What does this fold into?
Amino acid sequence: MRIAIFGDIHANLEAFEVVLADARDQGCLSSICLGDVVGYNANPRECLRIVQSLNCPVVKGNHDDYASSDSSLESFNPLAEIAIQWTRDQLTSSEKLWLGELPLISKIRGFTVVHASLEDPGGWGYVLNQLDAAASFSKQTTKLCFFGHTHTPRAYIKDSSVIGLPFDQLLLEPGKRYFINAGSVGQPRDGDWRAAYLVFDEEKRMIRLRRLRYDLPKTQGKILAAGLPPRLADRLAFGK
Ligand code: ZN
It folds into this structure.
C-alpha cells in the first residue's frame, strides 16, 4: 500500500489541499499526520476539519499542544507566540479538546511516528544533526520512524554509525534503521517554498519526497487579512 505521510500543515489550507490531491494522484490509499495541524497560517479550523475527516493516525505537535491549552507561551519566539494566541482565539472548545488528546507517539503497521523526537517527545527538542538523531534512535524500537518539527526533509540512517542526508527518494535496506523527516506542508524551512510530503510505498520499501507549488499569494493574503504578522506571509515565499 502507498501511504501519504505529512505534517507541519500549520493552517495552510492551499498547500494542504494541493498535497491531498497529489497524494490521491500518486495512488495513496491512506494518510498519516505528523502533527502541527495549526499555528502560523490563517486556516486552522479548516485544516483541522480535513485532518479529522481523513480519520487517519495523527500525533500531537507543539503548536497543537499550545493552541489547545492555556499554558504560558514564554518559551516561543514572538512570531510563534502571536500566531498561537490568534489560533487559540479561533478554535472551538471541542476542537481544542481533540487536539489536546492527540498522542505524542503512534505505532502503525510496524513503524513509528512522532512530531519532534523519540528521545523526549513532549519536550519538543529539535533533531538537527546526527547527534540528535542518535539520541532518538536509542528510543526507536521499530526499523522505521517518521517525524517532523524542523520543517526540513532529511533522512537519518543508522548502520554502524548515524548519517543524515537530504533525499528525493530512498530505498529502505534490510539491517539499517531510519528516522525520516517529512518536511512541512505549510511552512517549509529548507529554502524551498513548495509544500513537502512523503509517499511511502510499503511493498517496494521506497520513500519519495514530493514538492508541490500552491497558490502562495492567496495564503499570504489570508494571513494579512487575519491581522497576523506580515512576516509570517513573507517567510513563506523564501521557505524559511
Ligand atoms: Zn511545526
Notes: Residues 8, 10, 36, 61, 63, 149, 151 surround zinc ion (CB under 6 Å). The chain has one domain: 2-236.
